[in-house]
Write a structure and sequence with these properties.
Elements (H helix, E strand, L loop, with lengths): L1 H4 L5 E2 L6 H6 L3 E2 L3 H7 L2 E4 L13 H6 L5 E4 L8 H9 L5 E4 L19 E3 L8 H20 L12 H4 L2
Length: 167
């Protein structure tokens, strides 16, 4: 929505969201991720890290991108191969990068990306907006209150490891 506010054309690759839903938000569904890499000016990554996404962005894909591309990863470290990203940025194959997540967190103090002027690095806190922190505080209070009032019941809304708890 923010990009659309700047009259940007927003292309979306998401194998789990249908074309109609993406278009209802003003985006354009992209079916081929490799083709999207070749045409985008900005790439913002929002996906989980798993076997299919580990090193999804590697040197081959980075070389296929436009030289004025700016790549942003606020999702998970490991989706972009950092050595390959370093090579692409150092060799001016990309315009720049913004990373809030790293393969190793915290990154080592001698991380090669720290030496580049065309990269912006933040300490895995991009999601910690005022709104996010307020929502987190409210959810914690609600969960504690629910537990104190209903000790025999579990608040299933915030339990992620249900399988392990047998629920």
């Amino acid at each position: 929505k923010r990009c659309l506010g700047f009259d940007m054309s927003v292309n979306v690759y998401d194998p789990f969201v249908d074309k109609k839903t993406i278009e209802s938000f003003g985006g354009k569904k992209v079916e081929n991720l490799n083709e999207a890499f070749k045409t985008a000016d900005f790439l913002s990554i929002h996906m989980p890290l798993n076997e299919k996404t580990k090193n999804l962005i590697n040197l081959e894909k980075l070389k296929s991108m436009k030289k004025n591309m700016i790549i942003i990863n606020t999702a998970r470290g490991g989706i972009i191969n950092e050595q390959d990203l370093y090579s692409a940025l150092k060799g001016k194959k990309l315009r720049g990068a913004g990373l809030d997540v790293y393969e190793q967190e915290p990154p080592p103090s001698n991380h090669p990306l720290f030496d580049l002027s065309n990269v912006l690095l933040t300490p895995h806190n991009a999601a910690l907006t005022l709104e996010c922190r307020m929502r987190m505080a409210v959810e914690v209070c609600e969960t504690v209150s629910f537990y104190l009032k209903n000790k025999e019941k579990l608040n299933l809304q915030n339990i992620i490891n249900r399988k392990e708890l047998g629920i």
